[in-house]
Amino acid sequence: MNTDELARVAAWMTAHVPGFQGPVRAEKFVVGQSNPTFQLESPSGAYVLRRKPAGDLLKSAHAVDREFRVQRALAGTSVPVPQVFALCEDKTVLGSMFYVMEHIDGRNHVDPSLPGETAKGRAAIVDEMSRVLAAIHDVDLAAVGLEDFGAPGNYHARQLGRWTKQYRASETEELRDMETLMSWLGEAMPEEDGQRTLVHGDYRIDNLLFAADGSACVAVLDWELSTLGHPYADLAGVLMQWQLPPGAEGRGLSGVDRAALGLPSDADFVADYCARRGIDGIDSLGFYVSFAFFRMAAILQGVKKRALDGNAANPEKALKLGAYVPLFAKLGLEARHRYG
C-alpha cells in the first residue's frame, strides 16, 4: 500500500475499529494467492487486513464479505476464529472491498509431515485438525444466524456446475484428464443424503494456526470458499492434500512413512472424524476425493489465469501453482478407485 492508501485506511479504521489509533504501517503476507492480505502495525496494536484483488474478477470469487460474515458468526463457538472488527464496502478507501480482523500469534504448519515435531506432537496436531473439522460441521446454523449462508439443493451438483463454469472462464488449454474427470463426476454423483452443514471450503493444515506451546488450534483462517453444503467435501479436501507430493511445492504426504512419523493413515483419520460426528462410515468416498481434486484444479486454473493477466498477488508462485492443474486432474481420476 502506498502512503495515500495507508492514510485512507487509517482514517477508516479510526471511524470503524474500536480502540484503533493511527498511524498505520502495512506489510504484505507473501502466502496466499487469492485475497491480498496485510499485517497492519499501529500504536494500538497489530491487525490483519484482507482485501479483494484489483482487476477484473470472476463472479462470486474473492468473497471477503462472506469471510467476514462467517467469522463474526462463529465467535464464541467451539470453532476458533479471529475477532473481525469491520467490513469496508466503500471502494474509494482502498479500491476494493476489505475487512480488518485481529492479528493472532500462532504457529502455521505449511508441511503436513510436520518436520521438527515429535511423533506424539504430530499425532496431537492432526487429532486437533479432526476435532476442529468435526466442530465446523456440528455448528448449529440457526443459533449462529447462518441458515441462509448457502443455496439449497444438492451441494456437489451445484459445486460441479459452479467450478466447471469457473474453469471454463479461466481455461488456457484443453486437458483430456480434466474433461474426463468432469464428465465422470456428473455421472457418479451420489444421491442426496440430507446432510447440510457449514463447510469451510479449503480446510487444510496451512489454513490453521496452532498455539505456540502446544497442539491447540487457535484460529481457522481463509473462509473465502465457505458455504452451506456437504461436510464430506471438507474431509475429502484433507485426504486430497495428503495424496500430493511432499515438500514445499506439493505440501503432501505421498510416499511418506506416516506410521513412523506418528501420522494417521487416511482410514484412521476418516474413522476418527466419523467417531466425533457419530456416524458409521462414508459411502462413495472416492467420489468426494475425486471431486476435491477437480475443484482444486479449477481453483488453480484461476490462479494461473490471474497470473497471466497480471492480477495475481504473487505472479511467480501463481504460475508454479497453475502448473499443477494437470496433476490434480490425473490424481482426481485415480482417486475414483483408491477410496472406493
From TrEMBL:
Keyword Transferase part of the UniProt annotation: yes
Keywords: Transferase
Molecular functions per Gene Ontology: transferase activity
Spans traversing the lipid bilayer: none
Domain Aminoglycoside phosphotransferase: 29-249
Alphabetical list of Pfam families matching this protein: APH
Name used for this protein in its record: Putative aminoglycoside phosphotransferase
Species of provenance: Antarctobacter heliothermus
